[in-house]
Amino acid sequence: MSAEAADREAATSSRPCTPPQTCWFEFLLEESLLEKHLRKPCPDPAPVQLIVQFLEQASKPSVNEQNQVQPPPDNKRNRILKLLALKVAAHLKWDLDILEKSLSVPVLNMLLNELLCISKVPPGTKHVDMDLDTLPPTTAMAILLYNRWAIRTIVQSSFPVKQAKPGPPQLSV
């Protein structure tokens, strides 16, 4: 072996191995893996990335024999993926600041709609017509969270976005 090859071998063997990133489907195979993963100081993938991956996989359309795109099937796999996304959001304590910074509006909308579904809010129900005092606490929390997010999103989108001017940066004195 040449000196150059020996140096390369020494350099690669002395580097610490980084553990491989956990894939989304591994959480389907082992129930306790999600809790273990979220307890890590710096989990890879990050919690918000997991939410995106879980919802992405659960909402993938299927193609039938005639090559027609079908909506995602309502099967056990997709329900579990949606539930895993909800568990990750619960781990983040439903912090809208974190969720809004990290997730796109459509993904966060999908997540909160899943929360409403699992909280037994009938689809198509006007939230203003509901008496929150008579609802179970989890259902009331889901409605409040969804409406807080909706109002925040509407308000944030109503502010004009300042376009960056092309050219060299201007120094202000």
From TrEMBL:
GO terms for cellular component: chromosome; integrator complex. InterPro entries: INTS8 (IPR038751). This is Integrator complex subunit 8. One of its GO terms (biological process) is snRNA 3'-end processing. It comes from the Eukaryota.
